[in-house]
Amino acid sequence: KAESPSVPREVFMAEMANVMYDAARLYGPDKLANDKRVEFFATRAMDTLKDVPESKETKDLRAKIQKLLKK
User: Fold this and answer.
1) 3-class SS at 23?
2) Are 37 and 24 in contact (CB under 8 A)?
3) Which distant-in-sequence residues (6+ apart) come within 8 Å of 35 by Cβ?
4) How distant, in Å, are the alpha carbons of 29, 30, 68 from that of 15?
5) Which of 18, 21, 36, 71 is most buried, by the most CB atoms less than 10 A from its CB?
6) Residue 61: is it exposed, middle or buried by C-beta count within 10 angstroms (0-12/13-18/19+)?
7) pTM higher than 0.85 for the full model?
8) Sign of the torsion formed by the C-alpha atoms of 36, 38, 44 and 49
9) Can you give the pLDDT of all 71 residues of the chain as single tens digits?
10) Alpha helix segments (H runs only) across the chain
11) What backbone torsions phi and psi does residue 64 show, to the nearest 5 degrees?
12) Pairwise CA distance, residues 60 & 13, whole Å
């Protein structure tokens, strides 16, 4: 019987935040233009990153999300 793949929680949470950021960008002014959805996904992405240790990737992602929220 094969074992289930295992990923550290921090890696999973960081990737989920990245997926939510991509979803927020999809609803941005250049594509589907729905400000409420941008705010929803971007806020959820930031909430997800709260429990993830700081790294270069998460720092960059936080900056991108903040920039998206300011638009």
Assistant:
1) helix
2) yes
3) 27
4) 24, 23, 18
5) 21
6) buried
7) no
8) negative
9) 678 888 888 999 999 999 999 999 998 877 787 889 999 999 999 999 998 999 999 999 999 999 988 87
10) 9-26, 35-49, 56-70
11) -65, -40
12) 15
* Tokens at 67, concatenated: 């920039």
Tokens found for residue 70: 């300011």
- The length of the chain in residues reads 71
17, 49 Cβ separation under 8 angstroms: yes
How many whole angstroms separate alpha carbon 36 and alpha carbon 24? Answer: 10
